[in-house]
Amino acid sequence: MVKPTVATSFFVCLLLLSACTQENSANTVPTANNSSEQTQTLRIAAAANLSDVLPKIIDDYKASKNTPEQHVEVTYASSGKLYAQIKAGAPYDVFLSANQDFPAKLAEERAVNATGQNNVAHQNDATYSPFTYARGQLALYSITKPLDKLNTASLTNVFISDINSKVTIANPELAPYGASAKAYLQSQNTYPILNKQKRLIQAENIGQAFQYVHTGSVDYGLVAQSQVIAIKAKPEQFITLAPVSYPEILQDGIVISDSNLAIDFTHYLRSKAGQQHFLQAGYLPV
């Protein structure tokens, strides 16, 4: 009587152990995959003018994918500085520039490298082509000088007659918004005067230029329209410059890694939902 009882108990234990093993195995596989997706980090190199609008776009992107825990790291700087970092090997997945030149250079360099490797191109070279995602605007901003009674035609007289005032722009060599600001001042014949009188303050990027004006360190600043919209600036604090008065600010991006997540995010960036954020933030339609 003892042996059958032992054998029966042993057999039952085996059945229970097998069932538990199968259940654990079935639960483990999906959990591991989900964990892998959630822990993949999307690294974005973004022009400084995007610091107000991009976080909202990222939040909506994650909400649309139902992935609130998705890791996204964004580095904001001048487009020229970010381009130099990418050239030096910085591990970004997406580069969102404030102009078209830097992404075009990266695409051209990719094509040259592919040719140098026995014409074996990247498997997704078509995907890694530059794309236009935004069109920026310039604004004149001040918290020390009322601007509501001025018009763009009288700005030249204001800059020249107010000899104690200082004007800031982003570095034209590194920041596309700075290059457009310089072109605007040149068209108004004020750039050489401000430069000669050492009243023109160059910031590293458009974010720093905005801070110089916002803190009252300088009287006037040529900044991004999106920046004054973001802080809900008063009407007397800024003037939106006519888009025809400076070179068009078309902002291009490019995917620079093998990340499918990066490709998916840039598709959302260009979607109707993504573009709506740019329009609300003070950008012009692409």
TrEMBL record:
The keyword Repeat does not apply. GO terms for biological process: molybdate ion transport. Keywords: Metal-binding, Molybdenum, Signal. One of its GO terms (molecular function) is metal ion binding. PROSITE patterns: PROKAR_LIPOPROTEIN. Molybdate binds at S79, I206. Residues 1-25 form the signal peptide. SUPFAM superfamilies: Periplasmic binding protein-like II (SSF53850). InterPro entries: ModA (IPR005950), ModA/WtpA (IPR050682). Belongs to the bacterial solute-binding protein ModA family. This is Molybdenum ABC transporter, periplasmic molybdenum-binding protein ModA. It comes from Psychrobacter aquaticus CMS 56.
